[in-house]
Amino acid sequence: MPADYDQVLKDLDEQIGKLEAEIATLKAGRPTIVVLRNKYNPPIQRASLIPGQFAGMGPTDAIPLVLKGEVFPLTTAEVADKLQAGGVNSKAKDFPASVSATLGQLRDKGIIVRVGEGWRLKTNGEVLEEVAADLARTKAMKDIAIMNF
Which residues pair with 101 in a beta bridge? Predict the structure, then answer.
């Protein structure tokens, strides 16, 4: 049976018209949403850094403090810059590489997590989930040990 191309084109035009009407409705509502966003969600300020606040500290101790006040994840370079601005002294020849290695160690210890190209502290919820999972594994291992006894 041959296709009725005229009907297909008519149906496509009808769908395009409906989509264009939806787009127009969305565009009309956008300014109101922008006003509401600006009213109820003011711009987020980055955590301020006090010069010298990390003096005498190494990267391992200072990195969690750098990330603690941040709303958005920081890249490795941003963390390194904040550490140096905060007074962390290092004898490393390549400070950003040293910071990168330290970030990896803190991730492996479960203190921070990688988010895309950045880093952030783990939330309390994430830590609690891990503790609950560890407790469940421990209980399961004890149950298996009792069953095999």
Answer: none
Residue type present at position 98: S
CATH architecture under which domain 46-149 falls: Orthogonal Bundle (1.10)
Between CA 140 and CA 132 the distance in angstroms is 12
Q: Which amino acid is at 128?
A: L
CA–CA dist 86, 95 (Å, integer): 14
pTM score > 0.85 for this model? no
Query: What pLDDT does residue 102 have?
Result: 95
Alpha helices by DSSP H, listed for 41-123, are: 59-68, 76-85, 95-108
Number of residues written out for the chain: 149
| Cross-strand bridge partners of residue 75 | 118
Q: How confident is the model at residue 89 (pLDDT cuts 50, 70, 90)?
A: confident
